[in-house]
């Protein structure tokens, strides 16, 4: 289990003040500006210079570049457009091929440029890149926002499949509770940097206690049939 206590602040204001336990997979959910991405940046040690953090972490592994990987929001800007896919990897061709097959891609894509791939293919490449160091924790920042509905569902299924096969822990940042429900066991709802609700995903979705959580669920599932 990974336990994290985090406070992010400016000189005059606290922007994020949360703590949580991560067993296997946790969705960090809230509207834009709620502090989700700031939390990921703090874990990645990528906060802007005008912000400071107080972070306490207890886990079975050290958080560093070898143990933590990151999948960003937009696959179209995540890769260098003038660099072939193979050159984005740091591992040899054999492992590159293995990683691509793992995410459902053919090895012939290694000789292509990012502009020659679809959004879904690019996101699969980014996920393959996140797996090359066999991380203990992968941070996903709105990984399906730039994708069409069918591709989005395919990527969510892929993430769930990879979780089982590679046994990494997941923090999945999103405003989309539907996406979170597909891949995460637990959910942490935040608003203005503070916890609104935390618990097992199925319990929170089927019986939310907080009005803000109720609003998010209603907005996400109004056009979908939901079964707890």
Q: What is the number of strand segments?
A: 9
Averaged pLDDT:
91
> Count of DSSP helices?
9
Oligomeric composition of the shown chains: single chain
Taken in chain order, the helices and strands follow as EEEHEEHHHHEHEHEEHH
Low-confidence stretches: 223-228
List keywords for this structure.
globular; 25% strand; Rossmann fold; alpha/beta; three-stranded antiparallel sheet; 228 residues; disordered C terminus; 35% helix; 9 helices; six-stranded mixed sheet; single chain
Describe it for me?
This protein is of the alpha/beta class and 228 residues long. The chain has a single domain (23-47, 62-221), classed as 3-Layer(aba) Sandwich (Rossmann fold). Helix content is 35%, strand content 25%. The chain contains nine helices and nine strands. The chain has helices spanning 36-43, 75-78, 85-88, 93-102, 119-130, 149-166, 177-183, 201-206, 211-221; strands at residues 2-9, 14-22, 25-29, 52-58, 68-71, 137-141, 169-174, 186-191, 194-200. A hairpin with a 4-residue loop joins strand 1 and strand 2. Helix 4 packs across helix 5 (119-130) and helix 5 (119-130) runs parallel beside helix 6. The longest helix has 18 residues, at 149-166. The two termini are 25 Å apart. The model is unreliable at 223-228 (pLDDT under 50).
């Amino acid at each position: 289990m990974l336990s994290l206590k985090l406070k992010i602040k400016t000189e005059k204001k606290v922007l994020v003040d949360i703590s949580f336990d991560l067993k296997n997979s946790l969705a960090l959910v809230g509207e834009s500006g709620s502090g989700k991405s700031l939390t990921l940046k703090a874990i990645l040690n990528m906060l802007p210079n005008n912000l400071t953090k107080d972070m306490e972490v207890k886990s079975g592994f050290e958080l560093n570049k070898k143990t933590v990987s990151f999948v960003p929001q937009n696959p179209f800007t995540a890769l260098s457009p003038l660099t072939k896919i193979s050159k984005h990897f740091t591992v040899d061709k054999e492992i590159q091929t293995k990683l691509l097959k793992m995410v459902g891609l053919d090895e012939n894509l290694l000789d292509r440029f990012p502009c020659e791939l679809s959004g879904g293919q690019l996101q699969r490449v980014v996920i393959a890149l996140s797996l090359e160091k066999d991380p203990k924790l992968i941070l996903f920042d709105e990984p399906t926002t730039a994708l069409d509905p069918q591709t989005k569902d395919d990527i969510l299924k892929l993430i769930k499949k990879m979780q089982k096969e590679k046994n990494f822990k997941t923090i999945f940042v999103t405003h989309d509770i539907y996406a979170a429900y597909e891949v995460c066991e637990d959910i942490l709802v935040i608003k203005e940097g503070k916890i609104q609700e935390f618990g097992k995903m199925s319990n929170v979705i089927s019986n939310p206690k907080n009005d803000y959580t109720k609003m998010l669920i209603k907005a996400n599932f109004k056009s979908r049939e939901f079964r707890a």
